[in-house]
Amino acid sequence: MRLHGTKLISALALLVPLILACCSAQPAGSERVSLKGHFAMAGNAPFAKLVFRAENGASYEVAPVEAKQLSARQGGLIAIEADMTETKLETADGKHSRTVRMIRNITVLSSPTR
The CATH number of 23-108 is which of 3.30.70, 2.40.50, 1.20.1530, 3.40.50? Predict the structure, then answer.
């Protein structure tokens, strides 16, 4: 019986560092922002997602729970207010990183104009 417990502990000792070494994410807080831009789809199926492209060129991922109802508003220029969270994703070796800006609790302030 003791042999099985030793194998389990050995397996966990090897797996835990490997899992933790893959990548890390650090949320940087949330703030209410006002943006002007348009909704668009980004990426290829089946991984496509709705994003908000602001006039200043920044892209914000739309929270999945709101993406379905807001996808009908794609196209024209629109003004919104939303809670924005920035999360920095980085590989364990620090060679690759990117910042993901996610918006949720979106309030549409104006109708799309073309």
Answer: 2.40.50
Q: How many residues are given for the chain? A: 114
Beta strands, E only, the chain: 23-42, 49-54, 59-62, 78-91, 97-108
Tokens coding 82: 């939303």
Q: Is the pLDDT of residue 99 over 80?
A: yes
Q: Is the pLDDT assigned to residue 3 strictly greater than 60?
A: no
What residues form DSSP beta bridges with 37? 54, 78
pLDDT tier at 39 (50, 70, 90 boundaries)? very high
Please list, in sequence order, all residues whose beta carbon lies within 8 angstroms of the beta carbon of residue 70, skipping any fewer than 6 positions away. Answer: 39, 50, 62, 106
How many other C-beta atoms can be found within 10 angstroms of the C-beta atom of residue 46? 5
Boundaries of every domain in the chain: 23-108
